[in-house]
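#struct-pred
JK: can someone run the complex with NAP? inputs below
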Amino acid sequence: MSNVFGGPPAEGAWITLTETGALNVPVHPIIGFIEGDGVGPDLWAACRPVFDSAVQKAFGGSRTISWWELAAGEKSLAACGEHLPQQTFEAIKQAVVVIKGPLTTPVGGGFRSLNVTLRQQLDLYACVRPVRYIPGTPSPMKRPGDVDMVIFRENTEDVYAGIEWKSGTPDAHRLIDFLETNMGVRVDPTSGIGIKPISPHATKRLVRRALRYALEHGRRRVTIVHKGNIMKFTEGAFRDWGYQVAAEEYSDRIVTEKALSEDFHGKLPNGKVLLNDRIADSMFQQALLRPKDYEVLALPNLNGDYLSDALAAQVGGIGMAPGANIGDACAIFEATHGSAPKYAGQDKVNPGSLLLSGAMMLEHLGWGEAAALIVQGIEAAIQAGIVTYDLARLMSGAQEVSCSGFARAVVERMPIAT
Ligand code: NAP
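RT: done, structure tokens with the ligand placed:
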């Protein structure tokens, strides 16, 4: 097994999957990394030492990560003439767990986002974004600490399926004619057309993952967010299939809102999780007015896209928002912002998003002790007023540091593991 940048490090061992899909993590796992474009190399140079220090502090050298660089983006193009060579896909499947910086979407006809391509080709169907406030971070909210949610956004269907026809093209005309002739639906003949598929299979696996997460992490509420009042057979069906998978597989652990009031007098029994649903527009209000009422959210692709960024803004913006794209066979953890090319090579941007994504990755490995050290180091640095430019400009009296300066401040403030 090799990729454009070479074979895996000799000293590590592969992560494997058990029959039930759980991770089998050796003490020296090989983990793939993609540096990314634009600010990616600055971020990676700053963050990798933080990940290694956290693992060292948590496990005293008994566990280490063997990093394996994988080719993607502009660095890959320079090396082999391709942005995403086939070997990279094979290497990601072999590594099972990968962390990546942002990738620039090349501008030009026919180019699909590299990030979307990775998600689709590897069937990374759940985009997972925890949104939690770190005290001291500037926020537009009065009580940003009330926001503590984990978003599960469907990653393969809905608008990501990308089924569209441009206005005025022969294919658009053909479809418009077909709709009128065969389905009795009249569409303005100058329209562009888009189709969004939402299937029971993709919905159920996404909602299943959200439910499992809530049950395994002691979360008490899962909310299905949809626009089913308008799009009944896609978004409405997303809601129905979500309830269905809960009833089929978790009936002993899940309580619906109706059952909560009718059978439990409004009091959620211990060990149970409340499953409810909200219409998307109302959810945006609720996220601002009653954020404490929401913990785990399951959404179709487009709703999930909007709500992820809106929630991230409530707790300090995209510089601090971590994320992961997870499938049954592999997972990619990534900074949620883009490659911010104007800051490339300046060692300037906030590494918080990639650091927190790395903490998510360590959790995913079952190395929660190391993950906690990163989070605690970030919290301590921000509370000391040590921040990068993006937060410094919103704070008074902050000490502005570089990207690598913030990463060093995090390492210095990681507590001694107990
Ligand atoms: P962007 O790279 O996220 O940058 C937009 C602005 O967000 C920056 O100018 C900066 O704001 C702020 N920002 C981004 N990352 C930051 C960080 N780590 N710390 C502090 N501030 C940060 O968005 P874009 O300019 O729209 O996209 C650039 C390229 O990235 C495009 O090719 C796009 O396709 C790609 N992209 C990739 C991913 C991904 O890999 N997952 C995601 C989104 C976009 P200020 O100017 O106010 O300082």
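RT: quick notes.
The chain has a mean pLDDT of 95.
The CA atoms of residues 132 and 148 lie 4 Å apart.
JK: thanks, will look after standup
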